[in-house]
Amino acid sequence: MTSGALARVIRSAAERRTDAERCDLCGADIPSEHRHLLGTSGEEVLCACRPCSLLFAEAGASEGRYRLVPRRRVRLPPVGTRALGVPVGLAFFVRRADGTVTAHYPSPAGATRWEADPVAWRDVVADCPPLATLEPDMEALLVNTARSAQEHWITPIDDCFRVVAAVRREWRGLSGGSRVWPAVDQFFAELTEQP
Fold first, then answer.
1. Which of 17, 33, 77, 160 is the residue whose CA sits 20 to 30 A from 152?
2. Does pTM surpass 0.70?
């Protein structure tokens, strides 16, 4: 009989092989369409079943340690992001509670992050007033101008992490291979506006 650390590794690997997603709080099976919580201390996104997500519907729940990710998605007209120093055509921008803005772009190693120039961000918001309504830490400006695309959205932060996961999952070789851009295109094709 296997015991100790080896047994835990084997059990953990067996649990990961199941197709069912699980609530990160209570362990219940959850459907593929489910809500997420943002762990504010480490920018961690957690899957939540409906009963657990309802516990965090109020702003003061869990003393702010976890917040329910909103569902709002708004398609925007083209937003000029060149002044923000975006080196690639696929990026997202998150306004933080302290007023700073972090920019991220997906890569095969995850999301690369840098701080956007505050003056440039103010200019972008002046040209696109809906960006002033971004909920700090919870929503982002998601932009895809790669390969002639013109996608500009206000999205929940979990959508941004989904596109990062798609890039990581599909990237092959030095240039991304033939699967990454169809996966990105499919991601944007499936986005729908939600108030």
1. 33
2. yes
